[in-house]
Amino acid sequence: MPVLEEYHNALRLGQKEIKAAAARGEETGLQVLPGDPEELAMRRESLGVVEVPSELIVGTCNKLRRNSFSPGFYPALEADSEFAGKWASLCQAHLNEGIRDPIKAVEYLNRFYVVEGHKRVSVLKYFGAITIPAVVTRLLPRPSDDPEVTAYYEFLNFYQMTGLNFLVFRRPGEYRELMEAMGRPSREAWSAEEIHDFRSFYYMFRDACLRENADQQYISLAFLVYVKLFGYQASQGKLSTQIARELPMIRQEVRNRLENAGVTLMLEDTVKKPLFPFHPIGERLCAAFIHAGSSDTSRWVYEHECGRYLLEDTMNDQLYTLSYENAVTEQAAEAAINDAVAKGADLIFTTDPSLLLPSVKQAVRHPEVKFFNCSLNNSYPSVRTYYPRMYEAKFIKGAIAGTLSRSGWIGYVADYPTFGTIASINAFAQGARMVNANARVLLSWNSLKEGGGIDSLRAKGIVYIDYLDRLAANAGPRSRELHNLAMIHCDWGRFYQSLVRRVLDGSWKKESRGSSAISYWWGLNQKIVDVLCSRRLPAGTRRLAGVLRDAIRAERLDPFYGVLMNQQGHVVYGDDGPLPAQQILSMNWLSTYVEGSIPRPEELTDRARAWMRVQGFEEAGLK
């Protein structure tokens, strides 16, 4: 084909891109380096000659060149222009002997902007070059709280270990996610063989994604999700055709990350017992329950098993259940799930946050089965999560403790910080302060390396302590020296009945929110959670607890209504209304009425840190 005809083809591609960009309201030319390099960068760093992935070359340092090309570097000037002649000459040189001279480019936040060699980039991209050699100057941004800047410095650590620049994540924590999924230390340099194997697998994966016309950002996120769910070692020998067959399984998970869809909290239980069953009459659903522990030794598992028995007893004509215990390891959990699927399970409940990832791995492989995991705020649309909303009940318990404490000092023992935990602490303090103007909550943590927990509070003379609700796993035997005056009860049977009815009446599908994950967070209003009071409490205190319960259920009272202040005395919420649910769930600050602090991850035991990572709270950040 004559080179001028090649130019005509490239020009048509460029014009098509320009029209599409204009229709979307986007720039119709190249991106331009966003600002003066001296102002953008904390410092410069010369990288020498680097093979740059062509899709990362996005623009120019010279704004006068921006309209000579389409956004994808195809030519935009007419075929009779001087530009077209030079482009055609370069095209001929490439076809005869190849373009060997590297371009010059500036790299800023993993985007490359051309200083010299625009037409070389255009020709090479037109012919499908995967990488383009470039003499690169890196502009290092000033550290900031900007998530993209934070993610970029995580990339620099990855680059220092590997020298690889083709895998780009734009959100903090994703490089660490990848390292953990691969089972690699996050600071150890890679060998030449490991780099070669990783590069080969990535480009095999990239080839599979390109068959679906995926862009660079989608490919990077899909690679992360794929490695997490299918395994790096287990997938290295796969062909791109096999990977291509598996990509549709994870599409929903990738879209969740790509669209930053997060999680939708379902705060109300609007599903009632239907007059007519949606599920075919005569066919019973099979619901499997998979536990990380044993009902003989774990109160958590025991309570879920009680809920299972109640579910089966109440809905015996519509379903039957299976139960698996001691799924302690990921392998044991996946084996239990596979056995349940083989036995015809329509729904699978995994009753512990540690079982979330095994649940997701199997959910993408078995889309015909509906998966639930007992955790909170996890952004995996393939698995719906459920958890009791505890902070309202903690508010009532705080009020009870406030009426009893003469000194005003009240203890609170938490296990480890995660979603919902901080809200429970603050709600407890709000309740105590509502009835006792001198109330102060002294906070201690069970999972500190240096100790803590109830013993540290009792050593300080604290008499009234919120400690080990029945929802706590592995609570252990109660000390005879402790008297339980009030405790939180969760009606797991009611919870499971409502979740199952969503499948029976078809509202499961109606509650879908695109690529967003779904999390059911129910509490006092839905009669999932309640506060049980001991007869040792004064009658007036028991009556107060009932009044508060009724007020919360009638939505006349909200623990987080109005002005809220943190320990530093700063107003964190000042609107005349209740705090939004998502802000309650993701609280990372302590109330001005709380003495103590949120421990940093390095202060916690390895087990506690592992649980925080599973539930995603370590990435959420602590203040």
Give an account of the 3D structure:
The chain has 623 residues and is α/β, with parallel strands linked by helices. The protein has four domains: 1-142, Conserved hypothetical protein from pyrococcus furiosus pfu- 392566-001, ParB domain (Alpha-Beta Complex), CATH 3.90.1530; 143-260, no CATH class; 265-387 and 493-521, Response regulator (Rossmann fold, 3-Layer(aba) Sandwich), CATH 3.40.50; 391-468 and 528-620, Response regulator (Rossmann fold, 3-Layer(aba) Sandwich), CATH 3.40.50.2300. The chain has 23 helices and 21 strands. Helix content is 40%, strand content 17%. Helix 16 (421-435) links the parallel strand 13 (409-414) and strand 14 (440-445). The N and C termini lie far apart (63 Å). It has a seven-stranded parallel β-sheet with strand order 7-17-12-11-10-8-9, sandwiched between helices.
Task: List strands and helices in order, with pairings.
Elements: H1 3-23, E1 31-32, H2 37-40, E2 41-53, E3 57-60, H3 82-96, E4 103-108, E5 111-116, H4 118-126, E6 131-141, H5 147-162, H6 174-182, H7 192-210, H8 216-230, H9 232-235, H10 240-246, H11 251-258, E7 263-266, E8 285-290, H12 299-314, E9 319-324, H13 330-342, E10 347-350, H14 356-365, E11 370-373, E12 383-388, H15 391-404, E13 409-414, H16 421-435, E14 440-445, H17 454-459, E15 465-466, E16 486-490, H18 492-504, H19 507-510, E17 517-522, E18 529-533, H20 539-553, E19 564-565, E20 571-573, H21 581-585, E21 594-595, H22 606-615, H23 617-620
Parallel strand pairs: 1-3, 3-5, 4-6, 7-17, 8-9, 8-10, 10-11, 11-12, 12-17, 13-14, 13-15, 14-21
Antiparallel strand pairs: 2-6, 4-5, 16-18, 19-20
